């Protein structure tokens, strides 16, 4: 029905590499596949094997689960989009499920696949949206930290020079020109 490839990490794998839970659900235990470094796997290419894999109204949704977290939606493939590179946004491990887990059965990271109604899935590419959102937040934090070094406080408010945005942007551009990895660090740091 489907195949997957983890770029730079695997050969093509088919549904037999996953544990089939029922007719519409599969799970790949990342500890069996990779060991403890599941967070290093940032993307997965998923593809339908032929046009008969799914009816037109169905999709194969991709979910990820860190140890002790809930499954989180990452993307999907369907008849009109039979292949995709899906960004794997691993949720933070832990939470209530961690407390409830049995000591004899350690929690592991998993990738889940589910056949679902196409109309029930989010329309946007969650992975790309989250990347852009994270990048914007990190750039905003950089600006705020820069502004704090030039500000004063009056009545509980931050007062900054009028040209602060221009100074920050110039400094930001200069760093990006001098260091090709500067902007990349905004997308890879946590």
Can you give keywords for this protein?
190 residues; alpha+beta; 2 domains; five-stranded antiparallel sheet; 11 strands; 28% helix
Please describe what this structure looks like.
This is Hikeshi-like domain-containing protein. The chain starts with a strand and ends with a helix. The chain has a five-stranded antiparallel sheet. It is elongated. The chain folds into two domains: 2-122, no CATH class; 129-188, no CATH class. Helix content is 28%, strand content 29%. By secondary structure, it is an alpha+beta fold.
Q: What profile does the largest beta sheet have? A: 5 strands, antiparallel
Q: What percent of residues are in strands?
A: 25-35%
**Structural class by sheet pairing and helices:** alpha+beta
Query: What's the number of structural domains?
Result: 2
User: Helix-strand pattern, N to C?
Assistant: EEEEHEEEEHEHEEHH
**What integer is the average pLDDT?**
81
The total beta strand count reads 11
Number of helices: 5
Query: What spatial form do the alpha-carbon principal axes imply?
Result: elongated
Alpha carbon gyration radius = 22 Å
> Could you name the ranges where pLDDT drops below 50 across 5 or more consecutive residues?
96-104
Helix content: 25-40%
Major sheet strand order: 3-4-9-6-7
- Roughly how many Å apart are the termini? 36 Å
């Amino acid at each position: 029905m489907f195949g997957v490839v983890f770029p730079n990490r695997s050969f093509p794998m088919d549904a037999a590499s996953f544990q089939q839970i029922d007719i519409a659900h599969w799970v790949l235990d990342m500890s069996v596949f990779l060991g403890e470094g599941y967070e290093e796997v940032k993307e997965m290419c998923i593809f339908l094997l032929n046009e008969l894999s799914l009816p037109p109204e169905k999709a194969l949704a991709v979910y990820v689960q860190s140890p002790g977290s809930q499954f989180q939606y990452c993307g999907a493939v369907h008849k009109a989009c039979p292949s995709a590179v899906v960004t794997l946004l691993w949720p933070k491990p832990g939470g209530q499920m961690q407390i409830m887990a049995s000591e004899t059965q350690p929690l592991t990271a998993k990738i889940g696949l589910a056949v679902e109604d196409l109309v029930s899935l989010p329309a946007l590419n969650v992975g790309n949206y989250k990347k852009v959102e994270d990048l914007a937040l990190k750039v905003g934090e950089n600006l705020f930290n820069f502004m704090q070094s030039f500000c004063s406080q009056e009545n509980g408010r931050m007062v900054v020079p009028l040209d602060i945005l221009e100074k920050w942007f110039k400094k930001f551009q200069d760093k990006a020109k001098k260091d090709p990895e500067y902007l990349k660090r905004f997308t890879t740091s946590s």
